[in-house]
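pinning this so it doesn't scroll away 📌
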Amino acid sequence: MNNHDLEKRDIAHTEDAAVDHVPEEDAIDKKAERRLLLKLDAVILPMTVLMYLSANLDRGNIGNARLQGLQKELLDNSDNKYSVVLLSFYITYMLGSIPGTLLSKAFPPNYALGAGCLIWAIAASCMAGCHNYASIIVCRLFIGLGESIFGQAVVLHYSLWYKKNEIATRLAAFIGAGVLAGAFGGLIAYGVSHIKSHIETWRILFLIEGLPSVLLGISVVLFLPGRPEHSRFLTESERQLELLRLRSQNLDEGDTGIDWNGVKRAFTDWKSYVITFIYSCMQLTLSSISGFFPTIIASLGYTNADAQLYTVPPYAVGFVVMVIVNHFSDRLHKRGPFIIGVFTTNLVGWLLLLVVTHNNRARYFATFCIVIGGYCTIPLIQSWVSNNTGSQSQRAVHLGFLNSLANWAALTSPFIFPTSQKPYWHTGFGLNLGFSVAAIIVTSIMMIYYTRENARRDKVEGKPVLGQKVEQAKYHDLAPGFRYTI
């Protein structure tokens, strides 16, 4: 921690010498809390999960469409043009992520999230009508714009409703929809490939996966609960209980709009960039899977149609592992050790693909590992950021970093799997392997830092008092009494 941070903490400590108290966990009616959580989960989870399922289908179907003739018909069978189409998504996705996430802080989250969903849904549906290279790039740009408004804003939205030790499990269900999208996408593409029609099958694929998302976007605007303070979804007694729950962990910031000091804190805090680097290591795997997973499966000796079907089991297993890992992460209140474990699985997968050249069973097993590594890490890192940022505005910007700055790695993925290296793709497999190693090392360093910083604060301030009011909204992660999640 630099001298500027220490000075701010000393000021905060002086101003907050009189310790206010927040409700203790024991003061909350546990039965009523369980009923409230069930009610929240019954609406918030299905709608956000469906959005993520939709987003991943509409983003990832380009890989399935490639095998169904899109590259041949629109892109002159050019690898470079296909790579540029993949790349175009990330341009708007990265540029829009920080302002897009802040929209859910400045406006009711259901309006912001619903608008993002409508943008990508309309653009994804329009891809069915593309007849040239330029038009498909324009559609992909708008898909990226829509998803930039949505991507990390859902994590922010969860932090408005759920306590710190409840987020990772919910995010696992949310991100798990992306894993299921890979499975459903393969099944849908397999089914569509057998349709006999005068319309190209890849156009039918875009329509089938794009049009339902338009209805979803409208539903989100109308029915997704916005903020606890104003939502008509809650009765007055439920609202008071929800605010009591949030207050017990100093999360009751209220509807205060954007706090530009929190925005500044996110930009000036070195930890924002280190955690973002770890996320970028995952993004390389995720974007590699999104653009090339059916192609990698096909390289194991399957036909293009069968390859779509064989993408399903790795995604299904990845979903189950994700839910289990994040459930235990919440129960143990730990993030770093689980992040290291998942990246180690990812490392094993890319290593097998790189060094095993003739055993297709081992290579197929490796595809399970990279799906687990690509997806399971997402909710863990997002929860880590959510837990370790003190205020909502700081959290919104840091979460935005995960899509904007972290996607520099994803920009390389369209170019590291050239057809000339098929079926061993040493460049793509090797780069993913190297980034997995880097992620393990940096995560270990951050765990050591957080442990030492928590101990230093305990020494300076004394251990946090149970029920102590922590001024996170005012001083962010520098507030006296704030401790980092390891």
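📌 and the second one:
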Amino acid sequence: MKRSALAGLFVAATLLAPAAFAADDLCAVNLQKIKDAQPQMKVQSVELNARIKQAVENAQKEQAKGTEEGNKNCISLTERALNDIDDTDDGRE
């Protein structure tokens, strides 16, 4: 019984640990996606590039705060920027 309970706790800890770090990484992942996507954007509009640049700068400032709220703000900013890039790639910009 002790072994199965210990094994169960180990499995639970293994499954839950990545979720705790996922939010921290999402900001960095989104920033990298934006960096990778910028040169490949089909439509290069000055206005869009300015919005993306401003969003990245603001997101990096939020990320640098190192707080949960800053991380959430970073994710929000980067997701909006990625949506703008996706809209451009779809020809909507």
